[in-house]
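pinned: reference chain
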Amino acid sequence: MANLITREYPCAQKDLYSIIETAWANYSLKLANFTAHKALYTAAYKTAALAAEAAAKAMPDDVTRNAAAETLRIGLVKMGDICLLNFRTLKSYIETAFTDRDVWTIQFKAAGQQYFKDAGNEDWESMELLNQAMKNYMAAPANATLLSGTPANSNMPATFAAAVATAATNFSAQYLAFKSAEETSAATAAKLIANNACYRTLTAMLRDGQVIFSNDLETRKLFVFSTLWDLINPPVAGIKGEVKASGTNAPIVGATLSIQADGEVAFDLFSDDDGNYSHQMGAGKYTITVSANGYTSQSKTVDMKADGYKTFDWVMVAV
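pinned: its structure tokens
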């Protein structure tokens, strides 16, 4: 099971750390005011908060986990190619075993044809089903006899079924490792817990700062999270949004968003586990194309200005 711990802070991790450091620097400048409000606010309180932030920052995050998952995915693709080739090879043996062309489609389906297309589009569950269907088909005594040919062993080699089984086993092991690597690791969860604790300490101080300086608007701004966020992130151009399925409103994971500026080479980004995406970009005109396996692609042209992120939500219609 994936760990259900989620971040509480409404910004990127790197921005959280910058905001924390900036906010506690502002706190130092107004320490006397904070101490007069609550005795717990001391110089040592700030030191402890910054030490907790430094400790959280030093903890490993999900970069290593993502790298491991991507490395496993590359291996998965290569292993999947072997499985797909095995199916095409099995089809050639079926064609020789069954001289009546009218029954080829029936036999191909029995061997797993219905899973082949999706398996070729990195639908790994379909690849698992394809491998199992091939093994089941060749294990049936009647099929084994026909596939071996007449005279015996003149068609499918005796070693082929074992080769298919080995490729299937290797693929399943790699797929299991890939799924495990994609889950939130214990180290990532620990970092999220630490970050959330720093965020809660920070926002408690900021709320008090807004009370203390409620009649001093300029100073009060120093203790508003969104103001601090804007300070370290000057307005830029960017896109964000979500990709969901029409009808069910279910998030589409791994949808490809191809983004191309006028006269430039396109680059891709992908929706996350919640169907969300975001990307910062320069000002200019872009064509955005969204595609996902099993859905009709969509495109739109947008004119981006350095005035913050624009939200583009996509509702994908099944093919």
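why pinned: Residues 195 and 223 are 19 Å apart (CA to CA). Residues 64-182 form one domain.
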